[in-house]
Design goal:
It comes from Kickxella alabastrina. This is Ethionine resistance protein. The structure is a single chain. The chain has 502 residues and is mostly helical. The chain has 18 helices and no strands. The protein starts with a helix and ends with a helix.
């Protein structure tokens, strides 16, 4: 099956994205490269209405097709994540609480490391693939691995000493629950690092516009996860408890990682890999790291702040917030695929120095993100009771969530569009600008409004989510304006000078 995947993927990529460029030398001059006939990234012709319409249609198809595979893969990945909660829930209350506490630590400490490195790789690899030096893709991957594992050593030291820290900060929590969380973190460290490596390995495919194998790779991971969880957690041969859950995830990530490398190797690997002799500029990669790290912290910290604020509102607010938060995660899982596809497509066109193509593709991506946000919001509002009862049948919680959902759905849609905008800014290497916009709109504007409306004015969760909606809407609008006002000629030159040929 994997042979057919690789062959089909290679065929689709060659015909849809590279065209005749695959029959040209790897390192082309700029003039020769822009004159290649038949390439998706080649000259866009005269600025006529007919040609523009054709380009818009093509970009919409490319982004939609690539994002559809990412969407399927993301949904399967969500099954892997939910299986951890389901397995721990069947072990007992302490195990369930311990896994939940450990996941909070992973989100607040591990995800910023993983996704900041991934953000840098996405920017550099997507631009490098269609540049005059496509083998920089492999070189940037090696850099990402070096940075990730160095930062991982610090992360590992924190996780292996987590029990006394959690006991100190969570002094009111059941000691057995804290012990379970600490045990899970110790066993989950290596699987988490494998997961980070897997995410970067997938970027080797995404940077080429190849997403077709993703559902198959994630399906493999899902099967391995569920089988390994039964073997290590529930079967009488091992019965490892939370340690078995972490070990099962590690085997799943390892299987997906090996399969991903196999697909990369069979798919045009000589174009992106020139061995360790090819060196990428460290300055370009490290310049993106600090803003990417802060941007990830700001993004992941928002949902945690909302949950913490809900604990101060009393009553059933925390239960209702749990349902709204779950719906928000579902919305983002579905919408993130467009953002990932948009980033890699825009990065490819910037790397190829296709000024008009990058501008049109980014505009099309914004429109697709907006359409998807509206469709997603409409789908939830059409039958809110159905969606809410996926997570609970408690009537008080259902009614409370239905009252808040019309306001929260605005926040969902705005956050979805803001993610697409942030990804497009990342494709331009403007993580620092995206970080400043998000900080101002969410924390300088949204946070005070949330306190005033939710607590001072007594509107509770409605006021809290109204502030979230305002902050996310402002973020999306400002980022969209920045993208539409981009000086693309200057940007392309800057990216070439800093990422491709510094």
């Amino acid at each position: 099956m994997m042979d057919s995947i690789a062959a089909s993927t290679a065929g689709q990529m060659d015909s849809a994205c590279l065209g005749d460029t695959e029959r040209t030398p790897l390192l082309l001059s700029r003039n020769h490269r822009t004159s290649v006939a038949g390439s998706t990234f080649a000259s866009f012709g005269d600025d006529t209405t007919q040609q523009t319409a054709a380009i818009v249609t093509r970009e919409a198809k490319v982004i939609f097709n690539t994002s559809s595979y990412i969407l399927i893969g993301s949904l399967l990945q969500a099954i892997i994540s939910m299986s951890q909660i389901a397995s721990s829930g069947h072990l007992g209350r302490n195990e369930l609480g311990g896994i939940g506490l450990a996941h909070m630590v992973v989100i607040l400490t591990g995800y910023p490391v993983l996704f900041s490195v991934l953000s840098c790789l996405e920017t550099c690899a997507s631009q490098a693939y269609t540049s005059v030096q496509p083998q920089l893709v492999g070189a940037y991957f090696v850099q990402a691995m070096q940075v990730q594992w160095v930062m991982g050593l610090v992360l590992g030291a924190l996780w292996f000493s987590a029990e006394p820290l959690l006991t100190h900060f969570m002094h009111g929590t059941n000691p057995e629950m804290v012990a379970m969380a600490a045990a899970y973190l110790r066993w989950y460290f290596v699987p988490f690092m494998l997961f980070g490596t897997l995410m970067c390995a997938k970027q080797l495919l995404f940077s080429q516009g190849v997403t077709y194998p993703l559902p198959y790779l994630t399906l493999l991971g899902t099967v391995v996860t569920l089988s390994a969880q039964y073997l290590f957690v529930f079967s009488p041969y091992f019965s490892l408890g939370v340690r078995g859950i972490a070990l099962a995830n590690g085997l799943s990530y390892l299987a997906m990682l090996l399969a991903t490398f196999w697909v990369v190797r069979r798919h045009n690997v000589s174009r992106i890999w020139g061995g360790l002799r090819v060196r990428a500029p460290w300055k370009s990669f490290l310049r993106l790291m600090p803003p990417s790290l802060v941007l990830t912290v700001l993004s992941t910290g928002t949902s945690e702040l909302i949950t913490m604020a809900a604990t101060q509102l009393g009553g059933s607010s925390l239960t209702i917030q749990a349902v709204i938060s779950a719906l928000s995660r579902m919305f983002m899982i579905a919408s993130s695929s467009i953002g990932v596809a948009a980033l890699n497509r825009a990065g490819n066109l910037i790397g190829h120095r296709s000024v008009r193509g990058a501008k049109i593709s980014s505009t099309v991506s914004l429109c697709l993100g907006l359409i998807f946000a509206f469709l997603g919001a409409f789908a939830i509002l059409w039958s809110p009771d159905t969606w809410i009862r996926i997570f609970t049948n408690d009537e008080q919680t259902v009614q409370g969530a239905k009252e808040i959902l019309p306001v929260a759905i605005v926040g969902f849609a705005a956050q979805s569009l803001a993610f697409v905008c942030s990804q497009l800014l990342s494709a331009q290497g403007k993580q620092a600008l995206a970080m400043r916009i998000k900080f101002v709109m969410l924390y300088v504007v949204g946070l005070p409004l949330g306190y005033y409306w939710a607590i001072a004015s007594g509107h509770g969760l409605v006021g809290l989510w109204s502030a979230v909606a305002v902050g996310q809407t402002c973020t999306a609008l400002v980022e969209a304006v920045v993208i539409l006002k981009t000086d693309w000629v200057r940007l392309v030159d800057y990216c070439t000078e800093t990422i491709i040929m510094p």
